[in-house]
Write a sequence for this structure.
């Protein structure tokens, strides 16, 4: 039997946002390696899988990436149906690309299964249309966190005029604000900060770019959260657009 691994997105948290394809992979799985941003409720679809948690949160040290790679390889070579379950989409800040390449280089077949990424889900759950005719012609997904010292071209993002969705930004709010203001973004640009998107404990905090750090502190915003920065995140702007459209 040829070795195969499914790299599956579990979506943002709400188990009903799982794809049918993800459910099918879980039903067939012998082994599931699960990340800690995945809602364990989705495991109800497993028939008899061995579940291994390879989380990086909760104060624990990260499971080394190399260890996760080797675990997948070992089970796949045993002919087991291996599902690597990741929060959101496996290829949006999820190392899906790295893991797929590593496995394929070792002769393992890989199938990627989309999940709904938290940035898109969070906005929609808060009634924020990330693109909107006449307001936002695009959306840019970025991470505020890097493992190397590389930095984003914040000026280009500020000038680009698309809605920005920032992942892993909670600890970097001050830096994000400074960079975008320096890049020329308006101080009153609306910002929505969405914690635990799509889960019952979802919370949202609205602010302006200039005030977002203080607003998040007062709100006690915690990870996981995404930031939506752009006109579409402004309730007032949205109301006036709706009024203009119906006039
Ligand atoms: N692959 C994942 C992202 C992993 S990076 C995806 O596609 O969603 C981890 C970051 O994702 C977190 O720091 C946070 O910014 C975001 N995130 C994941 N789940 C979230 C949720 N339920 N609500 C808000 N943000 C979330």
């Amino acid at each position: 039997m040829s070795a195969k691994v499914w790299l599956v997105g579990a979506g943002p948290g709400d188990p009903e946002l799982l794809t049918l394809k993800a459910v099918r992979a879980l039903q067939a799985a012998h082994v599931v390696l699960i990340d800690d941003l995945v809602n364990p409720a989705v495991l109800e679809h497993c028939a008899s899988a061995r579940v291994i948690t390879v989380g990086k949160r909760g104060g624990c040290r990260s499971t080394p990436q190399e260890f996760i790679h080797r675990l997948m390889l070992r089970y796949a070579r045993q002919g087991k149906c291996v599902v690597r379950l990741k929060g959101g989409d496996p290829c949006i800040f999820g190392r899906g690309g790295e893991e797929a390449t590593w496995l394929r280089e070792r002769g393992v077949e890989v199938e990627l299964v989309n999940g709904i990424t938290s940035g898109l889900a969070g906005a929609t759950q808060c009634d924020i249309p990330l693109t909107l005719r006449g307001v936002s012609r695009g959306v840019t997904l970025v991470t505020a966190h890097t493992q190397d010292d590389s930095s984003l071209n914040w000026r280009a993002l500020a000038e680009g005029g698309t809605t920005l969705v920032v992942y892993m930004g909670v600890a970097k709010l001050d830096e994000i604000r400074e960079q975008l203001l320096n890049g020329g973004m308006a101080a009153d640009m609306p910002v929505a900060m969405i914690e635990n998107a799509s889960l019952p404990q979802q919370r949202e905090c609205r602010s302006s770019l200039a005030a977002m750090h203080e607003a998040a502190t007062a709100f006690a915003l915690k990870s996981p959260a995404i930031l939506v920065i752009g006109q579409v995140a402004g309730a007032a702007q949205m109301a006036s657009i709706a009024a203009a459209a119906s006039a």
In short: The beta strands are 4-9, 31-34, 50-53, 82-86, 109-113, 139-143, 163-167, 190-195, 203-208, 225-229. The CA atoms of residues 159 and 238 lie 21 Å apart.
